[in-house]
Amino acid sequence: MRSAFRQIWPPLVAVILFLGIWQAAVSLFTIDPFFLPGPGAIARVSADNAASIWSHTAATLRLTLIGFPIGTGTGLIVALLLHLLPWLKRALYPLLILSQNVPSIALAPLLVIWFGFGLLPKIVLITLVCFFPVAVAAMGGLAQSDRMMMNYMKMAGASKWQIFTKLELPGSLPALFSGVKISATYAVMGAVVAEWIGADKGLGYYMLLQKSAYRTDNVFVAIVIIVLLSLVLFAIIALAERWLVRWKPRKAE
Questions:
Q1: Would you kindly state where each structural domain of the chain is located, as residue ranges?
Q2: d(Cα 85, Cα 180) in Å, to the nearest integer?
Q3: What is the pLDDT of residues 18-43, one digit of tens each?
Q4: Domain 39-244 falls in which CATH fold?
Q5: Helix residue spans in 29-159 (DSSP H)
Q6: Second label for 165, Cα 20 to 30 Å away, from 28, 51, 155, 236?
Q7: CA 228 to CA 184: how far, in whole Å?
Q8: CA pair distance 83, 87, nearest whole angstrom
Q9: Alpha-carbon Rg of the chain, whole angstroms?
């Protein structure tokens, strides 16, 4: 408990100081709320529009929770295939890297043309955003297995499948979870971008409405909620890592 508190309080204090300085600057320099509202104004408008904001948040959360597992699973499957089939990795890995040079916002119009305005193009976009960090991290973890232990298992007569399941796959879990945590933060962003391409509900749609109405305070509310959703999803993955990878050495507290 104490170690957890020691990890939490420094960023918590930094956030509180940041918000205090922000509010003080807005009040001291009488900055127009249209340009930069203070944290107090953002909190008030979020309370006033709580019901509407919650409905949009629930829509984004639903989209994220559908797309994130699909993207993570796709990334893991791609990593396993490329690891088990080296010739396939040599052929496809450069294309995998090149695919990330295309911004997701640029793919959105094409996905609408190909798949329409329904749920499918949004899920495809989130999958494309999420799968790459998982695939690269998992491939890196699988490739960095303990060579001494691998040689020992080969001398003991272990099959390739036994080496994979007993050594390579368990040893890749820390790297895999690093990729999944990155993917978790990307998933919420991907859901918001997906809502920009065509939706009638969600934080992305809400931001577009508020931008058109020049409600900077409501745009900030959406940004805060997006950050909080990303942090919660990241924390859940981190807790799952601590539970599943118990053998991983931890730094002294």
A1: 1-31, 39-244
A2: 23
A3: 888 988 888 888 888 778 888 888 88
A4: MetI-like fold (1.10.3720)
A5: 39-48, 50-84, 86-99, 104-115, 119-143, 147-155
A6: 236
A7: 12
A8: 9
A9: 22
